Amino acid sequence: MTSPVTIRIQQADFDVSREIAALTASRTDIGAVVSFSGICRGTQETPEGGDATTALTLEHYPGMAEAEIARHAEQALARWPLTGLTIIHRVGRIVPGENIMVVLVASAHRQAAFQAAEFLMDYLKAHAPFWKCEETADGAGWVAAKTDDDNAAARWDKN
């Protein structure tokens, strides 16, 4: 059986439970589903505390973003025995408490699902063609790439 892959970039919110149900419906070959949900938080992670985030605006390169995510999904499918995966990433204006993205990875066994989900998240955080503008009470600014995210993604090149 070919593993089903769903990749969506959308402005609309989504329901994680419904996405899991859609991935697993009528399937008896799935023993584990690992999920990662990215949610917009209202505060920055800085030692000083930072200003509260009032919103994020996410932009992407249409066509390129979907192709790049699909390329990494194919790598995950080739690397681990997966039975399906779903990646949904929102674009547009998102306020604290709202979903930003979800990665769902299904496999017969948990270890493959965990590893593939982590691989996909490290890629998405470091290299997916999305740009994030953060709004605070003091104004708005583009969020810079982080070395820690690049290092997390680079570790998969060694394995």
Count of folded domains: 1
Helix count from the secondary structure assignment: 4
Described by strand count, sense and barrel closure, the largest sheet is: 4 strands, mixed
Give the strand order of the largest sheet, numbering strands 1, 2, ... along the chain. 1-4-6-2
* Backbone structural class: alpha+beta
For this structure, what is the CATH homologous superfamily? Molybdopterin biosynthesis MoaE subunit
CATH architecture: Alpha-Beta Complex
Compute the separation of the termini in Å. 27 Å
CATH topology: Aldehyde Oxidoreductase, domain 3
Explain this structure to me?
- The protein is of the alpha+beta class and 159 residues long.
- It has a single domain, classed as Aldehyde Oxidoreductase, domain 3 (Alpha-Beta Complex), CATH 3.90.1170.40.
- The strands form two sheets. Strands 1-4-6-2 form a four-stranded mixed sheet, sandwiched between helices. It has a four-stranded antiparallel sheet with strand order 5-3-7-8, with no helix packed on it.
- Helix 3 crosses helix 4.
- The chain starts with a strand and ends in a 5-residue tail after the last helix.
- The model has no long low-confidence stretch (mean pLDDT 89).
Give a short synopsis of this structure:
Helix 2 (64-79) packs antiparallel against helix 3 (110-127) and helix 3 (110-127) packs across helix 4. The chain is 32% helix and 34% strand.
Give the secondary structure arrangement, pairings included:
Blueprint: E1 5-10, H1 16-24, E2 32-39, E3 53-60, H2 64-79, E4 82-90, E5 92-94, E6 99-107, H3 110-127, E7 130-136, E8 139-142, H4 147-154
Parallel strand pairs: 1-4
Antiparallel strand pairs: 2-6, 3-5, 3-7, 4-6, 7-8
Helix pairs in contact: 2-3, 3-4
